[in-house]
Amino acid sequence: MYPSRPAESTLRSALFLQPACQGVTPASLVTLDPTPPRPGAWIHGQSPRPGACSVSQATFCCASSGALPVATRPLVLISDDEPLIVSSFARNARMFGLDVVSDTTSERVVELARLHKPKVIVLDIHQRVDGRDLLARLKQDPETRDSHVIVLTGVEDQFTRHVCFDLGAVDYEVKPFDSTFLMKVARLAGVDPYVPLAAAHAAPGHTA
């Protein structure tokens, strides 16, 4: 059973009006350093321009604002060739207690999945590399097959939907994504989505 959930207006304002981290540039939140972190160490990121916040800074900022502690935040990998989709997903996923690593080329998704062992992989199938091939590789690789894969696409196609489920996807979602989709990702990652949202709503400076 979930704890008492906030009113829908509270959920909407927490998700869409309250940034995950004040002053953090979304583009700086979505690329992790390929070096595996030491146990208990920060996950470091590369800032896209001088003065931008790194992933480690963003994670600390979010954790200190009332979301889940850094050590308990599950990791989600998103592979999508649309930067706006990636930055929007990364920003809002943090409202649900998740950390995010991304691939916008479709060429590193398997490598990143093997390296970071994400709980959930959000995979756009219409990229430079066919997402169905990537899905098959992810589910056949012993190092990545335990990650839940959600297919994200701009086109509803029943045949492709069935193919993706046959290949091992747990869900097939049509863009644009919404808060229901983010809650689904959070649950698959093992997070109660209402807890981080309620914490963000209660954080100092939040206005409904």
Overview of this structure, please?
By secondary structure, the protein is of the alpha/beta class. The protein has a domain at 73-202: Rossmann fold. 37% of the residues lie in helices and 12% in strands. It has a five-stranded parallel sheet with strand order 2-1-3-4-5, with helices on both faces. β3, α5 (131-140) and β4 form a beta-alpha-beta unit. α1 crosses α8 (194-202). It is globular. The model is unreliable at 1-71 (pLDDT under 50).
- Proportion of helical residues: 25-40%
Strand-residue proportion: 5-15%
CATH H-level superfamily of the domain at 73-202: Response regulator
CATH fold node name of the domain at 73-202: Rossmann fold
Pairing-aware structural class of the strands and helices? alpha/beta
Major sheet: order of its strands?
2-1-3-4-5
Summarize the helix and strand pattern as letters.
HHEHEHEHEHEHH
**Counted beta strands:** 5
Low-confidence stretches: 1-71
Largest sheet: 5 strands, parallel
Shape: globular
Instruction: Average the pLDDT over all residues and give the rounded result.
Output: 72
Count the helices. How many?
Answer: 8
User: How much is the radius of gyration in Å?
Assistant: 16 Å
For the record, the CATH architecture of the domain at 73-202 stands as: 3-Layer(aba) Sandwich
CATH class of the domain at 73-202: Alpha Beta
C-alpha end-to-end distance: 26 Å
